Structures are given as C-alpha cells and as structure tokens.
Amino acid sequence: MLARCALLRRITPLHRPVVCSGLNIPLPYKAAPPKYQAAMSSTAASNEPFKPARRVAGQRQDVWSIVNEAAAASPVQPIVNMGQGFFGYNPPQYVIDAAKGAVQTVESNQYAPTKGLPRLKKAIADAYSPFFGRELNPNTEIVVTSGANEGMLSAFMGFIEPGDEVIIFEPFFDQYISNIEMPGGKIRYVPLHPPKDGAQKTSSASNWTIDFDELEKTINEKTKMIVLNTPHNPVGKVMSREELEKVADLCVKHNLIILSDEVYDRLFYVPFTRMATLSPEVSKRTLTVGSAGKNFYATGWRVGYLIGEEHLIKYVSAAHTRICYSSVAPLQLATAVGFEKADEMGFWDESRKEMRGKVERFCEIFDELGIPVCICV
To answer: Model pTM?
Structure first.
C-alpha cells in the first residue's frame, strides 16, 4: 500500500504545497478560493439566529471536504484523489448480487437488531476467530456499526468522560479528532518519527518509529485510552510485534483501553500482528475496529464492526444504539455473504494481488517523476 498522506495528484507540474497532519504534500492546483478555506468557528456562527453547541461550533472543516471542494473548483481536470480511502471500482460481483437480493426480502428492509444481524455477526466471528486464536462469541463480542468511523465514535462515547485524555500517533486519520472531542475528551499527540531521508527518497513505512520514552511521558493520571492504527493511515506502516508489545506493556502498566484501528487488516505485505492477540491481559482492554467497506470496496455502504470482550463491547453497543439505533439491514446481509464466500471465491488473495499491482504501477510513475513515496512492501 502506498502511504496515503492526503495525496491528491494529477500527473501535471506541481504548484503549491498543502499541509496535512504535519506533512507538506504538493498538490496540482493553486490555492483554493477563500470560500473553500473557511473553517467552522464560533465567530462564523455569530451572525446565525441560534447559537450552536460548543462541541460542534469549534469543529474545523475536515481536510477531505477542503480537498474535495478545492479539487472540484480547480480548472485543471481530471484530478485523481489518492488521499481518501475510497475505491474507483465496484465490490466483487458476488457481493453486489447479494446486495441486490437482500433488498428483495421483507426482513432486510426493516430495522436490524441494534448490535447487527445475527448472520453478519456470525460471519465476522467465523472469519476472525482463526486470527484471534479463540472462538469469538458473535452475540457478546461483536457489534456492527454504521461504518468504522461511527464505531470509533461509539467507543469514545462509551468510555470517555469530559477531561479524559486519549493518545493518538501523528500523523493520523483526521476523524479521530472530532470523535474524541465530541464526548469531551482531550487529545495528546505522540509523533511517529519519519526516516531522516524520507523526503528525499522512497523508503519503507517500517522506517517510521515510535520513541517509547516519549510515549510513556505523555501518559498521566487523566489518560484513559490510546488509539493504535495498523496498518497505518496515512503512512502505511504495519507495526511489528515488538512495537505492539511495547505499546501493550505501557497500556497494561497504566491501565489504558486500546482502540486498535485495523480497517486495512486485509491489505498488508509484511507480517501483521493483531493487537488483541498478544495476551489475555491485552485482549481484555482492546477494541479492534474493522471495516467491511475497506474489505469489500464498498465504503458507501457504511458497514463497520468492533470486536472485543463483552465488558467492552456492551458499552460500545449502548452508545451505538443511541447514536443511530442500528445499521443498514440489506447491506449487512450482503456483507455477511461477502465474508461467508470470500475464501471460496479466492477473494482475499486476489484483492491483495491486485492492490500490489497498483502499488507497483504508481511507484513506477512517482519514480519517473522523481517524487519520493513511502511504501509498506
């Protein structure tokens, strides 16, 4: 996987750098018009008839809406968005056919159970139990959410009180910020350190490192959770088992909950260890985030899921129920079929093979242009 790094390029001369998550990324258009640069703020809302709640009044416009609006306004077209995690092609045909069939059934057009359709929860449990080295209980250890992002919001809403601190590694998926701040959490940042020559030449994502002394110094009595993202967005780094163990040791020592964002868990080309599998002590404090949208090229379906022990999942489920009650029933059924038939159809292997080819092709293009990139292969 190419490190995504909010990369938005067309193969044209480069004009202006835009900063995203602390990285200077050249973009193929000039500065966006001022209307696309505005951020939401209490000042902007001062002329409106009703005062918004502070939890949304202070939210800045997210990077993707800024990038997408600026790209749409650019006279240089077409522009290929290589920064956002969506696909330019359809889910596999067998999954599309399952979705078509699902909307023809009466039960799939009504509310799904709040924690997800039993068939989908079982399919997820069957798919992930071999990875976790134990039988996952689909009724108590899995909750289906309206996309992985809503699942993460539900996790923070379920455990974060105002003033609690959550550690995230920079750079990061930008939605972490609003998801943590919505329930009143405060973010503490710990950088992933890039290789010294990363801006000059193509390098491996594994060369980005964590300073574990720096990480531990960030932990204090207010720290409640730590967000881990592997395979990492946007860098593409797959954390080694040794790195995960060091993070886990600190979380056990300081009694922290781990939110392990593993939505790219089917797209990796180096050894990949799942955080929750390190030990029973780590498992009992880890919530694993998954995404059917990422797995099956269907990000618009908004089907995600969290896996964790019952004492964690029940509170995520409680928050999820209040946020959206339940997730889209027919697409849950189609996702269940996706998991059930994936091995039989050879889907996972073919997906990784196809993505590897795309990575190699773009590496060739960027190398030809003299643009260094970060890759995880």
So the answer is: 0.85
